[in-house]
Design brief:
The longest helix has 17 residues. This protein is α+β, with helices and mostly antiparallel strands and 236 residues long. It has a 3-stranded antiparallel β-sheet with strand order 2-10-9. A 3-stranded antiparallel β-sheet has the order 4-8-7. Strands 11-12-13 form a 3-stranded antiparallel β-sheet, with no helix packed on it. It is built from 4 helices and 13 strands. The chain has one domain.
Length: 236
């Protein structure tokens, strides 16, 4: 899908505001051999669901991983999905894949990248990072049999409008590593110090219209993330 003028203007506005605010984006790259020092890791995997565009999705995920995997996020710095991955409308880098916009499935250039942002967001919750910006999908298209990640851990991204931004609140630098395998995506958050994953719990409430409100809670029962999903039959 060709990028709209509105999206281009919005993307330009976001860049200007980041410059004015001096947003401390992560931009240091791993030096050859440096990865060995990041010996402690949290890891998650998610399966791929069969679809006509699965191979294109894998291509897009590998393209995103080629940039994400090289970036060091130092303490206090911000990991920005789009700042690192770049414009997904670039047909020289990305292929057409399945996307979800406003609860509707469509085919867009760069489709499928939300599985990368979602699994990274899930790792961030386990590590206790500060989630500066994150958006959940507008509807929940899955059920208990088809769901590949806990409801409330997803993170949709839409260039120029919706980003995933995480601040490293740990005492050591971190790197995210994405590996696209035949049947699954493997994600790691690697650090130079030992790190234990937080045990997360999920409070899901469904109203009379089928809308879902989800709270993700940490070990102290503190709400660390909230999501609201409209019912597929919602008239809103």
């Amino acid at each position: 899908m060709k990028q709209s003028t509105k999206a281009k203007l919005r993307g330009f506005y976001v860049k200007v505001m980041d410059i004015l605010r001096s947003t401390p984006f992560a931009k240091t790259h791993l030096e050859p051999g440096e990865k060995k020092s990041y010996s402690h890791a949290l890891e998650l995997t998610q399966p791929f669901k069969p679809s006509a565009t699965l191979e294109s999705k894998k291509h897009n995920l590998r393209e995103a991983a080629s940039r994400i995997n090289t970036v060091v996020v130092r303490p206090g710095e911000i990991f920005s999905f789009w700042h690192i991955v770049g414009n997904p409308n670039n047909r020289k880098r990305f292929q057409e894949g399945r996307s979800i916009h406003a609860g509707v499935l469509s085919i867009d250039v760069g489709g499928g990248l939300c599985q990368a942002s979602g699994i990274i967001h899930h790792l961030a919750l386990q590590a206790g990072l500060d989630v500066v910006e994150r958006f959940n999908h507008s509807v929940d298209l899955y059920n208990d049999e088809t769901r590949f990640a806990p409801l409330g851990t997803d993170a949709t991204v839409f260039y120029g409008f919706k980003d995933l931004r995480l601040r490293n609140t740990l005492r050591s630098p971190i790197v995210f590593q994405l590996m696209v395998e035949e049947n699954l995506i493997r994600a790691q958050l690697r650090t130079t110090r030992p790190i234990l994953p937080k045990k997360l719990d999920y409070n899901i409430e469904v109203d009379e219209e089928g809308n879902k409100h989800v709270e993700v809670l940490d070990e102290e029962r503190t709400v660390i993330s909230t999501s609201h999903y409209k019912s597929l039959n919602s008239s809103e």
